[in-house]
Amino acid sequence: MERPLDGLTVLSLEHAVAAPLCTRQLADLGARVIKIERPDSGDFARGYDRRVHGQSSYFVWLNRGKESLALDLKHPRAAATLAALLAQADVLVQNLAPGAAARMGLDFDSLQARHPRLIVCDISGYGDDPQRPGPYRDKKAYDLLIQSESGFLSVTGTPEAPAKAGASIADIAAGMHAYSAVLAALLQRGRTGQGSRIDVSMLECMTEWMGNPLYYSFEGAEPPPRAGAAHASIYPYGPFRAGDGRTVMLGLQNEREWVGFCREVLRQPELASDERFASNPLRSRHREALRGLIEAAFATLDADEVGRRLDTAQIANAQVRDMHAVWAHPQLQARQRWTTVNTPAGPVPALLPPASQSSFAPRMDAVPALGQHTAALLAELGLSAQDIAALQADGAIRLG
């Protein structure tokens, strides 16, 4: 089956998480993604850890389906290769340091005249629009720092201490917004014939995701408190310990569920009319008293029985799974959501893209070795074996 982005070429000057997540999803949809890496070490995410058969967990996650071209962009002989690649590209994605792409003539303004159909997607920490640089433009912007600047840390954690998210959510937010913006730009180009520039700021992406706590704090109102794994403003909503020491996660959304929770789960129907708990704001205000009653009721039950009672009452609930349990999650298994992709160190399992499509199958090609496709790509551009050998000897490229 033909995929939506078959025939499109994406050139990527990328590292770490945000841009690679964007381009990996474009590759899943059929785009040819040519990833330019440093010849000496490649994308520095290759060295983050050695958890997957000696390979980086980050890199394996983010780079399937791409071709690795190990090219030193600062080498004098790199310009001709880069120009030839740009002539064939539909999209350029980059998350180099702010201003670095412009210094190499790879900004949208410099490229537009020669490549009017090219879409350029720039991903940075604080935005890289030369017309509106802002005072933070040149600050380094790692995931944790953006979690902090966007206010995420102020509402995440316990009352005693903030906590960062366990996944790189600022990078993921930027990668997801970049991905959707590239798709929108491709649709727009289909109508106008013209490329465009996309400016993605990690700070702005995370601030968008903070919309609820921002509006909750509107016009100087008290911000939502840090509540650990519990909900800051809905109660009971969060983790509760059962008698066997395991944790059950549950959440109530309305008064009908509250009545059912008291009757079917706690087996204390009289609590439903207790004036302390007559509405969600009151339950949230008296959450410590209510927590004590809930955990006292759960103390005589194991987690499985609590779950059965919650299911009977049609109360939302979940297990608190660790990573090993997620690998074996029965729902993912039943829906056949795992497949296999190849890596330089052998095959590994990979989750199929979450948005299933009836009209095509996603492309789930291999994770590339550093420089694996350098020779083939240069030959495709018309370089002879002698030319390629000379570039290698000169340190401009690396062959995989």
Please render the helix and strand layout as text.
Elements: E1 9-13, H1 18-28, E2 32-37, H2 57-62, E3 66-71, H3 78-88, E4 91-94, H4 100-103, H5 108-112, E5 119-124, H6 143-149, H7 152-155, H8 169-192, E6 197-201, H9 202-209, H10 211-216, E7 237-241, E8 247-251, H11 255-265, H12 280-285, H13 287-298, H14 303-312, E9 316-319, H15 323-327, H16 330-334, E10 338-341, E11 348-351, H17 374-380, H18 385-393, E12 397-398
Parallel strand pairs: 1-2, 1-4, 2-3, 4-5, 5-6
Antiparallel strand pairs: 3-12, 7-8, 8-9, 10-11
Helix pairs in contact: 1-8, 8-9
The spatial strand order of the largest sheet comes to: 6-5-4-1-2-3-12
Number of helices: 18
Rounded average pLDDT: 95
Largest sheet: 7 strands, mixed
- Strand proportion: 5-15%
Helix coverage percent of residues? Answer: 25-40%
Q: Which structural class is indicated by helix and strand composition?
A: alpha/beta
Radius of gyration: 26 Å
* N/C terminus separation: 31 Å
- What's the total count of β strands? 12
Secondary-structure element pattern, one letter each: EHEHEHEHHEHHHEHHEEHHHHEHHEEHHE
**Which runs of at least 5 residues are low in confidence (pLDDT < 50)?**
none
Instruction: Tell me the overall shape.
Output: elongated
